[in-house]
Known about the structure:
Elements: E1 12-13, E2 17-21, H1 27-34, H2 37-40, H3 51-66, E3 71-77, E4 86-94, E5 99-106, H4 115-129, E6 135-140, H5 145-153, E7 157-168, E8 171-181
Parallel strand pairs: 5-6
Antiparallel strand pairs: 1-2, 2-3, 3-4, 4-5, 6-8, 7-8
Amino acid sequence: MLEVNFSPFPEIHTERLLLRKIVESDAQEVLNLRSDEAVMRYIDRKPAANLADAEAFIKIIIDSLNSNTGITWAVTLNENPERLIGSIGYWRIMKENYRAEIGYMLSPAYWQKGIMKEALLEVIKFGFESLNLHSIEANINPDNIASENILISTGFTRDAYFKENFFFDGVFKDTAIYSRLKQ
C-alpha cells in the first residue's frame, strides 16, 4: 500500500510559479476564486458565499493534509507568492490502488497563459516521482472543454463517460474520467 507523508510541506517551484501550502490568510483569495461564476461554472459545487465558507474550505484542505489523505497547493506567481491565484492538488488519494484524483482551478485573469499547464505538469511529476503513484485521474464536467484540453495536452486519456451519474443543483449531470499512467 502507498505510504504518504506531507510533512514538511513539499513546495514546488517552476519557472513562473511557486506552489505552496494554502494557509488561513489565503481565505479572501479562496473566497474570490470559489465565488467567481466563471471559475465555478463546471465545478458542480455550491460557490462560496462568504469568508466563513472559504475558511471552512481551507480547513478541509488542512485536515486532509494533516491526515495525509490529500494535498492541495496554492498556485502563486514567483513575483507575488503571498497572493493565491489558483489551486491544484490531489483531493483523493487511493493508497491501496496507488492512484489519486487531481483537481485544479485558476482565476480567470490568468486563463490561457499556460499557468495551469505549468503547474499541472509539475504536480503530475511530484505524484509519480515523490508519491510513487501508478495512476492519476481527473473527474470533470464534460462541458469543460478547457479542462479536457489541458488534460489531453499533459498526457491524460479519457477512460470513461458516465451519463447523468451526478446530481447537482436539481439536475443530473454527466461525468468524464481522464487518467494518466506512470510511464
